[in-house]
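Teaching assistant here, posting this on the class forum so everyone can see the example we discussed in section. The complex has two components, and the goal was to see what a joint structure prediction looks like when all of them are supplied at once.
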Amino acid sequence: MGDYAYAAPTSLEEALSVLESQANDGQRTQILAGGTDVLVQMRSIDKEPRTLVDIKQIAETNELSIGADEIFIGAAIPSAALNENDELKGLLPGLIEAADLIGSTQIQGRATIGGNLCNSSPAGDTIPALVVVSAVCVIASPGGSREVAVGDFVTGVGQNCLGSNEFLVGLKIPRPGNNSADAYLRFIPRTEMDIAVAGAGVALTLDDGGTCTSARVAIGAVAPTVLLVEAASAALVGTKVDDDALNAAAAACSDAASPITDKRGTVEYRKKVVGVLCKRAGGIARDRASS
Amino acid sequence: MSKLHVTTSVNGQPEEVLCEPHQSLLDVLRDELGLTGTKEGCSTGDCGACSVTLDGRLVCSCLVLAAEAEGKEVGTIEGVANPDGLHVLQQKFLEHAALQCGICTPGFIVAAKVLLERDPNPDETTIRYWLAGNLCRCTGYDKIIRAVQDAATELAHEA
């Protein structure tokens, strides 16, 4: 077993080469972005020494760009910086709200969407919000870079498809059109700083008459990974996203959920609440898309 | 284990320290630099007692590695007072008796100072949400909120 070490590479190539050389030396590595999960876990549940590879000195992980077709959010950008960007908030209000729900002002100053995704908790708030806006992970890999849809990235509780020689550079999101909008809601027993009992994200597009032409609905904290609920999406498409359609989408979410009973809620409660959240988030997304 | 050489700035003063790779900024401030105004509460980012600024952004120093402070500006409670006396926030915390044991107070003042720099006239809800990451087990928060509101009023008069 090695010692703790710290590296702050300044390019993607250097970061990949640090990961490779450490692996060749038999040294464990872990990527460090905001550190709000990594450092807590390193001091409690998993104290094994490792080399922390800080990706915050790399240009690409600090990139935040809003293009005509695509938005890119680098993996090192803290939630507070996203929340201060009014253009981004206007385009992806649901995703930014999901990021803003995580932790205190202090945590917001460090925590990243990329880190929330890579921590791969079933209750990670930004994951359903990323799934519904069709976000794609840009992953630095020894062979170059590869892309994986967020919906395919998380493979289990705390697990994802990143290899030990890879890391997340950022997230690519198609720029929503004028008639498109997203929303994310979670339930916690207090107003701030808790882990979701259940969460639901909805993104939809309306035509000029207010009829829904496409919809994505994803639910969190009710299964080992975030679930994209196709039946809920189907219940919204072709409707005016009225109460009947939202109730049908809610029922589809409750049916799709396969939660566990734990200290935060029971199976029955979570299945009920996730439907209510879907209905409310769907209404918010509809109102945003039509305004 | 090889130590890391970190060059940083604390309250405007250049500092050089040797630290362990996994040592927190909190531990380096307290144990290496002797700046014990910043308090350790939970060391998991929940309580805010260790609040400092890093390049102007409010963070928990327990969740920052000292190595990450390389080339950055760190601001602690020791840098809050003016050469000629207490900062308005410090004075208002005294006047409103916004502390009892005092462990949380440096974190509250550092956090509130960042808020008032960004938003000189915050309403009560804004103050409460901004300070939600700072825990106080003595006061019940009301006196703290009033001290921050009063400080905002006084700073507006000074401006």
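For the discussion questions: Chain B has a mean pLDDT of 96. Residues 88-158 of chain B form a domain with the DNA polymerase; domain 1 fold (CATH 1.10.150.120). Think about how each of these relates to the inputs above.
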